[in-house]
Amino acid sequence: MRYLTAGESHGPQLTTIIEGLPSLLPITAEKINYDLKRRQGGHGRGRRMQIETDTVEIVGGVRHGKTLGSPVALIVKNDDWKHWTKIMGADPLPEDVDPNEIKRQISRPRPGHADLVGGMKYGHRDLRNVLERSSARETTVRVAVGSVAKALLNELGISVVAHVTEIAGIKADTSAVEGKSADEIRTIVEQDACYCVDPEASAKMVQMIDDTKKAGDSIGGVVEVIVEGLPAGIGSYVHYDRKLDGRLAQAMLSINAFKGVEFGIGFEMARRKGSEVHDEILWDEDNGYTRATNRLGGLEGGMSTGMPIVVRGVMKPIPTLYKPLQSVDIETKEAFKASVERSDSCAVPAASIVAENVIAWEIAKIIVEQFHSDQLPQLQSQIEEMRKYAKEF
After folding, report:
1. Distances from the Cα of 383 to the Cαs of 27, 129, 187, 232, 389, in angstroms?
2. Residue positions forming the annotated binding site
3. What CA–CA distance (Å, rounded) separates 118 from 129?
4. Mean of all residue pLDDT scores within the chain
5. CA–CA separation, 355 vs 143, rounded Å?
6. Please, what are the domains in the chain?
């Protein structure tokens, strides 16, 4: 499976085409819109979320609620486009028009953004040409793609859920997720303002976000994604680019502003002895092979173990600040305070939804690669055979 996205932050729409989905997969706009709404929520979101109400249109590859096996095309229209039609239009400007009156050119790159380096790479003196695409607005359609992937995983008995574990040093007590299913965790998360499983920590997070917004600053945090029901043996130790943990790490780090990733107990492994890190192998007739613990996060040798996949990503504070940092005008080379676009004081809760969906996509993608997947019933049958084989191995 693969997909491409197209569109700018203030363009007419965001577009994606997904190729390689099996036929007969149930898909509805309603389920995708639910995830899009969750992405727009979470405490700390900025004014753009008040302007846009993201909804998807399925414009290809689905008939009467089921995929055809052909590419699936999705679009999400930008409601704010009506205010940007002249500024972001695709047609050349008339010769009698001063481009400076229309283009809202940007020559002052913002620290922490793609502005300056992107301008260098693609030769743009107007840095709006960079920020329009490098904007996290693009994650809207990536969430839509991930929602489709979750629909596929759901048909295979695999669930994916994300929650916020930390914001600005405030850490949640995640013991609440121990022993709970992905659906039970989701029920807790969806009732919380910060998508957190710890109400006490969440209240402190809300206060920190509010205080940070008043100060004109921004804060980051950590999100955790849990994948439940994945059979053992997904991925491979044979080649570097087929290792499941490597692919999940790349997916997590591809999200805007994400700068770190870990599995299981992660960097804590550096502070423990091997006997305190590796998961002992158990077997019983009812469950087959299991692990006494899950410190490695459901992964060994680049493959799934059958235990829940646990992966975390760290999001840096958003670099667009209302008390902007110093920058340099690329035209005059004079020092300026960096320009301010609409932004969030904290997008960690929203980013957890993005993380949930990009991880879901990568899991679905590697499954489709590993098994025959032209039709959903064939894929379902093979996954069940894989579970049975692993249990009886």
Report:
1. 20, 45, 27, 10, 10
2. 39, 45, 133-135, 256-257, 301, 316-320, 342
3. 9
4. 93
5. 9
6. 2-392 (3.60.150.10)
